[in-house]
Amino acid sequence: MATVLKTFDRWKEFLGERVVQAEKVGMTEETISKLAFQIGEFLADKVDPENKEERVLKELWDASDEQERKTLAAVMVKVAKHNA
Q1: Which of 5, 71, 74, 75 makes a 20 to 30 Å CA pair with 65?
Q2: Which of 45, 54, 43 is nearest to 10 (CA)?
Q3: Rounded CA separation 7/80 (Å)
Q4: DSSP 3-state assignment of 79?
Protein backbone atom coordinates (compact mmCIF):
# COMPACT_ATOMS: atom_id res chain seq x y z
CA MET A 1 0.00 0.00 0.00
CA ALA A 2 2.87 2.40 0.70
CA THR A 3 3.83 2.55 -2.98
CA VAL A 4 0.20 3.29 -3.84
CA LEU A 5 0.40 6.47 -1.78
CA LYS A 6 3.60 7.73 -3.41
CA THR A 7 1.98 9.23 -6.48
CA PHE A 8 -1.40 10.91 -6.59
CA ASP A 9 -2.27 9.38 -9.97
CA ARG A 10 -1.67 5.88 -8.62
CA TRP A 11 -3.71 6.75 -5.52
CA LYS A 12 -6.67 7.92 -7.68
CA GLU A 13 -6.43 4.74 -9.75
CA PHE A 14 -6.34 2.60 -6.60
CA LEU A 15 -9.37 4.40 -5.14
CA GLY A 16 -11.22 4.11 -8.43
CA GLU A 17 -10.68 0.37 -8.49
CA ARG A 18 -12.06 0.13 -4.93
CA VAL A 19 -15.11 2.24 -5.86
CA VAL A 20 -15.87 -0.02 -8.83
CA GLN A 21 -15.49 -3.11 -6.62
CA ALA A 22 -17.81 -1.61 -4.00
CA GLU A 23 -20.45 -0.88 -6.64
CA LYS A 24 -20.16 -4.44 -7.99
CA VAL A 25 -21.03 -5.84 -4.56
CA GLY A 26 -24.06 -3.56 -4.35
CA MET A 27 -22.90 -0.52 -2.40
CA THR A 28 -24.66 2.68 -3.41
CA GLU A 29 -22.79 5.84 -4.33
CA GLU A 30 -24.21 7.45 -1.18
CA THR A 31 -22.76 4.68 1.02
CA ILE A 32 -19.42 4.90 -0.75
CA SER A 33 -19.37 8.68 -0.25
CA LYS A 34 -20.13 8.24 3.46
CA LEU A 35 -17.21 5.83 3.75
CA ALA A 36 -15.01 8.27 1.82
CA PHE A 37 -15.96 10.97 4.33
CA GLN A 38 -14.98 8.72 7.25
CA ILE A 39 -11.69 7.84 5.56
CA GLY A 40 -11.07 11.52 4.85
CA GLU A 41 -11.59 12.34 8.54
CA PHE A 42 -9.13 9.63 9.53
CA LEU A 43 -6.50 10.68 6.99
CA ALA A 44 -6.79 14.36 7.90
CA ASP A 45 -6.26 13.55 11.58
CA LYS A 46 -3.66 10.77 11.37
CA VAL A 47 -1.65 10.95 8.13
CA ASP A 48 0.81 13.62 7.02
CA PRO A 49 0.44 14.56 3.35
CA GLU A 50 3.18 12.95 1.25
CA ASN A 51 2.89 15.11 -1.86
CA LYS A 52 1.58 18.48 -3.01
CA GLU A 53 -1.79 17.10 -4.09
CA GLU A 54 -2.40 15.56 -0.69
CA ARG A 55 -1.38 18.84 0.98
CA VAL A 56 -3.95 20.73 -1.12
CA LEU A 57 -6.66 18.22 -0.22
CA LYS A 58 -5.75 18.50 3.47
CA GLU A 59 -5.91 22.30 3.31
CA LEU A 60 -9.32 22.11 1.64
CA TRP A 61 -10.49 19.54 4.20
CA ASP A 62 -9.21 21.59 7.15
CA ALA A 63 -10.88 24.77 5.87
CA SER A 64 -14.24 23.06 5.28
CA ASP A 65 -17.19 22.49 7.56
CA GLU A 66 -18.79 19.04 7.83
CA GLN A 67 -21.17 19.53 4.89
CA GLU A 68 -18.37 20.80 2.66
CA ARG A 69 -16.22 17.82 3.69
CA LYS A 70 -19.02 15.46 2.69
CA THR A 71 -19.13 17.21 -0.68
CA LEU A 72 -15.34 16.89 -1.04
CA ALA A 73 -15.58 13.19 -0.23
CA ALA A 74 -18.32 12.70 -2.83
CA VAL A 75 -16.27 14.56 -5.44
CA MET A 76 -13.19 12.44 -4.63
CA VAL A 77 -15.30 9.30 -5.18
CA LYS A 78 -16.27 10.64 -8.62
CA VAL A 79 -12.66 11.53 -9.44
CA ALA A 80 -11.50 8.10 -8.30
CA LYS A 81 -14.22 6.34 -10.31
CA HIS A 82 -13.26 8.35 -13.38
CA ASN A 83 -9.66 7.11 -12.96
CA ALA A 84 -10.56 3.43 -12.54
Answers
A1: 5
A2: 54
A3: 14
A4: helix
End-to-end CA distance of the chain: 17
Compute the C-alpha angle 50/35/76, nearest 5°.
Answer: 55
Are residues 13 and 82 in contact, defined by beta-carbon separation less than 8 angstroms?
Answer: no
Give the Cα separation of 63 and 43 in Å (integer). 15
Question: What digits encode the pLDDT tens for the residues 23-74?
Answer: 999 999 899 999 999 988 988 898 888 888 889 999 999 999 999 999 999 9
* Cα atoms found within 13 Å of the Cα of residue 77, Cβ hemisphere only: 25
Amino acid (one-letter) located at 73: A
CATH for 51: 1.10.760
